[in-house]
Amino acid sequence: MDNELWVILLPIVLLPVFFAMGWFAARVDMKTVLKQAKSIPAGFYKSLDALVDRNSGRAARELAEVIDQQPQSYDLNLTLGKLYRQRGENDKAINMHRALLDSPDTVNEKCARVLFELAQNYQSAGLVDRAEQIFLGLQEGDMAREARQHLLSIYQQDRDWEKAIETAQLLSHDEQTYQFEIAQFYCELAQTALFKSNLDAARYNVQKALDANKKCARANMILGDIEYKAGNFQAAADAYRAIEKQNYAYLSMVGERLYDAFDAQGKAAEGLDILIGYMKTFPQLDLTQLIYEKSLLLYGEERANQTVLELVRARPDLNGVYRLLSMSLSSLHPSWKADAEMIRNVIDRQIQKSLMYRCRNCNFKSQVFFWHCPACNKWETFTPNKTEV
Fold this sequence. Notes:
Radius of gyration: 34 Å
Largest sheet: 3 strands, antiparallel
Order of helices and strands: HHHHHHHHHHHHHHHHHHHHEEE
Helix content: over 70%
Shape: elongated
Structural class: mainly alpha
């Protein structure tokens, strides 16, 4: 009976003990936290505050003072080096990370991380060969994917398309295949081969581009150029016309070449009809001037004017108004002619200012078309027709 009573009373007796132990543990943990918080130098918070205010110069100075107090801090040294690189102080960043690399505590994953940052410093400083060698050495570890992404950037910058293709293939996975970029790399190779009149190599690379991305309009543009240069005018026309099913917006970039391919076969009128059909189907294409010039050549001024008038009325814009004024000048009364010429010149200046190619990714604007945006380094993001900006 006594034993049974003791079993019942024991938890009740020990309850205050357990409570005291829990309270004591909580107090110890809180003291530890407070002690650690007090041990963080004030300069660290000042540096963080400067970063919030986007004052990277003051942030770097404050963080450097903290490191003077704690010179062995791996994380702080790594961060300060990155901050120097962000500010363009590449020499300081290189020295900081090289010194960290020499530390006996920088081993295994830490060593790989410092090497990765050091390679970025070299790349930022324009020492691309050094950066490439480090990135190549990181391909077998945990930093492999990040290293390959930088290698891909280097190879594109150096226009080393074979290595770019190989690296992109290594980077490809289910979520991101890089097939879009690979197709563009093959197009670069095809364009180079075509420039050197190596038509077989050009055809091979075009086919590889289409294998990577069957929607690659640029590949068919180059294929049309290859066949035209080889004298295969119907094959050239077929290649250009295939762009309609890939991305019709690029038809304006091959309009004249398509017409020339038909003209070389003695089918100039058929080629012009196709261009007019494209304009009626896709009014946003920039083909009005080309259609006017070819209509003028084939049928004379009256029919050319009528054709363009119908197209412009279907979708009026600055280019169309400029064309209509140009057509009407000769028939205007002399008292109106000078004013009409002035209006046309004003419109022309406005067109030059407001109509530009534009990158859909970063909004970079240019009077020149780029397949590879020089601002954000994205491929095929430029509008194929000039747009109002």
